[in-house]
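Hello,

I think I submitted the coenzyme A job twice by accident. Can you confirm which output corresponds to this input? Input:
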Amino acid sequence: MILETERLILRGWRDEDASGLFKYAKDDRVGPSAGWLPHKDEKYSKAVIRTVLSGEETYAICLKGTDEPIGSIGLTFRESKERGIPKDGAELGYWLGVPFWGQGIAFEAAKEILRHGFLDLGLKTIYCAYFEGNERSKKLQQKCGFTYHHTNKKTHVIMLGEYRTEHINTISWGDWKKNN
Ligand SMILES: CC(C)(COP(=O)(O)OP(=O)(O)OC[C@H]1O[C@@H](n2cnc3c(N)ncnc32)[C@H](O)[C@@H]1OP(=O)(O)O)[C@@H](O)C(=O)NCCC(=O)NCCS
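Support: Only one job matched these inputs. Its output is below.
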């Protein structure tokens, strides 16, 4: 599926995006904030496209008229008892290449994914987490209308081999509808 906003096209990831993905995902200001390692080469980026970014509701964020991914956003549907995400709970995740921070691009993409999730997919609740200290992500979630749900004091961040505190927010269809 392809989604569109004023400035963006959100479309599925493809093998050919490997070099574009590597360009932004090698930056150590991106992945570790979200719990994954900076990419080490294009081969690794290609493997990530095939394994992690291949989900049906995972989208490459492209500026209109370029077709070059500058970030990723999507919904995953994995129950996590340890983290307090229920079986029917969709979770929003996102990141953006550093040169594109501070322009409202992540906000614009997240608003469209929420619309898509609630109106097209008929979801009832969407969850979104951030690690303690990730103020940009916290702010983005607040702007989107997410509210605090619970905190996990010791979430195992497997890829980074460490434990972190994560805060989990939610937004229900009813709350989303009030403001959209
Ligand atoms: C989290 C992340 C996506 C946020 O990106 P961002 O660019 O700061 O987010 P936004 O799209 O909300 O942009 C916010 C800023 O753009 C500015 N802006 C410009 N035009 C705007 C517009 N039309 N609408 C909204 N904000 C706009 C605002 O000033 C705003 O800054 P402020 O909130 O301090 O006022 C980014 O920092 C990132 O990729 N981090 C690393 C990975 C990560 O942490 N992922 C999340 C894991 S939980």
